[in-house]
Design goal:
80% of the residues lie in helices and 0% in strands. The chain is an all-alpha fold and 210 residues long.
Length: 210
């Protein structure tokens, strides 16, 4: 196995970078969309059921089926990379939306009322009080989303988007355990590193007990 890694180091490095690009960009898009949606749910409760319901439905659709649904879409289905990023982003939305909503609604109401009594506007309350206090819960959602993205990015190879799934699918087709492990081991390592790194961030942002 070590000899295989040595002989195919360049290919592994390229596919690992592709994997990081797909999963990283999809996670960033999910954060850019999911956090504002979570905030919206705290300000407009009627949107809670349709938004969370829609995100839940996305999670229940099998990954290859979701690729199939998105493939006919104009512009999105034109390139495998766009298709994969959109699919990964949709899969990652639920934990971010849910944790953002839970984090903000979980802020101590006495703290919120005290901030309002000091004359803070709704925007100031959100930026200066609610988001900072909810940040560790939000990061916990981003942590789950990142791990989901990295794991599911292996499926992106099925539509030609690249990534470490290329080794896995090639290994399955050739019944070659070395190829399967060459994709699975780095993908698992990336997921563990993302989980560990964001776990440290989450721990640092946790409120200090008094």
């Amino acid at each position: 196995m070590a000899e295989f890694f040595r002989d195919n180091g360049a290919a592994m490095w390229t596919l690992t970078l592709e994997h990081l690009w797909l999963s990283g960009f999809a996670t960033l898009l999910a954060v850019a969309i999911g956090v504002p949606l979570g905030i919206l749910l705290t300000r407009w409760p009627p949107a809670r059921k349709p938004v969370l319901g829609g995100a839940n439905i996305m999670q229940t659709i099998p990954s290859l089926a979701l690729f199939g649904f998105l493939l006919p879409m104009p512009w999105i289905g034109a390139t495998a990379e766009r298709l994969a990023i959109l699919a990964l982003m949709l899969y990652s939305l639920l934990p971010i939306i849910r944790n953002t909503y839970a984090g903000i609604t979980g802020v101590d109401r006495d703290v919120v009322e005290a901030a309002r009594a000091m004359g803070l506007t709704d925007g100031q309350l959100l930026l200066q009080v609610e988001l900072p206090l909810a940040m560790n819960v939000i990061v916990a959602g981003i942590r789950v989303a990142a791990v989901i993205c990295i794991g599911l990015a292996t499926i992106a190879a099925a539509v030609g988007a690249g990534g470490l799934g290329e080794f896995i699918f090639r290994g399955l087709a050739m019944v070659d355990n070395r190829l399967i492990l060459a994709g699975a081991i780095p993908a698992a390592a990336l997921a563990l590193m993302a989980d560990f790194g964001l776990g440290l961030v989450q721990k640092k942002l946790a409120p200090v007990a008094t």
